[in-house]
């Protein structure tokens, strides 16, 4: 599926500093009309999202708005009440084997070495473990983990454990990677380092990424496509394509202006929901 995409202008008529774009893109994922409720409380209703290939898309919204529930629906952890999931032109109940999922917690098994943890996807699928091990060692070297292959998770820092989780995610070898706030528990310095590695998933490993965060700075640093989410029931309030090349700088005037506009939009929605 191919679609022509152009950056939108807010209904207020005051444009954000978007990167004006009109290109043809291959649509990887399209969800339409997704609805999910728990105990008659709507999490989202009629939710639509389109994701193009080899893009870094970020869902930015307040805590508790329904971002993680959306990922649970997409991966089949929970079923949706209504709606369609379309992957590369095929309607599916969920993404299943088409996406790799990197969680907020590293989920490493404490009794396995870092390398053994990273190779679990290959082992559970019955793949050639010699080839998998060679691939794992290459990724350990590329992501700064050489020399730590035989360390246990409890013997290394949180940042190293997340690097290992990133290797494991790549071992899954999926075109789409779902990232559920994978850096939120890290200190600021380690977080910046891991943000750079996430950008490698797109630029070097040619992956399409869909990331959840409630950190505005992180979203603006990483996103090609930034979706601002409302409070429950969750909806997309705005689709923004930031206008500066990556890597981006916090002190860039355009970055600062866009950050202020994004914060104003999110804060306005929260205030409106509280009334």
Could you explain how this protein is built, in words?
By secondary structure, the protein is of the alpha/beta class. The longest helix has 22 residues, at 253-274. The radius of gyration is 19 Å and the shape is globular. 33% of the residues lie in helices and 27% in strands. Helix 4 (129-142) crosses helix 5 and helix 5 runs parallel beside helix 6 (188-203). Strands 7-8-9-4-10-11 form a six-stranded mixed β-sheet, sandwiched between helices. Strands 1, 2, 3, 5 and 6 form a five-stranded antiparallel β-sheet that branches. The chain has helices spanning 67-75, 114-118, 120-124, 129-142, 158-171, 188-203, 216-222, 253-274; strands at residues 2-6, 22-38, 41-52, 56-60, 82-87, 90-92, 99-102, 176-180, 208-213, 225-229, 236-240. The termini are far apart. It contains eight helices and eleven strands. The protein has a single domain, classed as 3-Layer(aba) Sandwich (Rossmann fold), CATH 3.40.50.
Chart the SSEs and their pairings.
Blueprint (H helix, E strand, L loop, with lengths): L1 E5 L15 E17 L2 E12 L3 E5 L6 H9 L6 E6 L2 E3 L6 E4 L11 H5 L1 H5 L4 H14 L15 H14 L4 E5 L7 H16 L4 E6 L2 H7 L2 E5 L6 E5 L12 H22 L1
Parallel strand pairs: 4-9, 4-10, 7-8, 8-9
Antiparallel strand pairs: 1-2, 2-3, 2-5, 5-6, 10-11
């Amino acid at each position: 599926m191919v679609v022509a995409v152009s950056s939108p202008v807010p209904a207020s008529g005051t444009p954000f500093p978007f990167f004006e774009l009109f290109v043809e893109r291959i649509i990887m994922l399209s969800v339409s009309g997704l609805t999910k409720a728990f105990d008659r409380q709507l999490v989202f209703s009629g939710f639509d999202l389109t994701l193009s290939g080899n893009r870094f898309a970020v869902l930015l919204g307040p805590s508790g708005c329904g971002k993680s529930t959306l990922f649970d629906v997409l991966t089949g952890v929970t079923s949706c009440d209504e709606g369609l999931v379309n992957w590369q032109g095929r309607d599916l109940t969920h993404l299943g084997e088409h996406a790799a999922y990197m969680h907020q917690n590293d989920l490493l098994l404490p009794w396995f070495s870092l390398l053994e943890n990273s190779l679990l996807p290959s082992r559970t699928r019955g793949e050639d473990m010699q080839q998998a091990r060679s691939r794992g060692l290459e990724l350990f070297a590329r992501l700064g983990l050489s020399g730590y292959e035989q360390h246990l998770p409890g013997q290394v820092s949180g940042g190293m454990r997340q690097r290992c989780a990133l290797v494991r995610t790549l071992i899954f070898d999926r075109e789409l990677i779902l990232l559920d706030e994978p850096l939120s528990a890290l200190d600021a310095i380690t977080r910046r380092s891991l943000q750079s590695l996430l950008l490698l998933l797109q630029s070097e490993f040619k992956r399409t990424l869909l990331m959840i965060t409630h950190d505005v700075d992180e979203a603006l640093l990483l996103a090609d496509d930034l979706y601002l989410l409302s409070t429950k029931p969750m909806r997309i309030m705005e689709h923004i394509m930031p206008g500066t090349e990556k890597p981006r700088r916090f002190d860039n005037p355009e970055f600062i202006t866009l950050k202020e506009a994004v914060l104003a939009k999110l804060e306005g929605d929260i205030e409106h929901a509280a009334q």
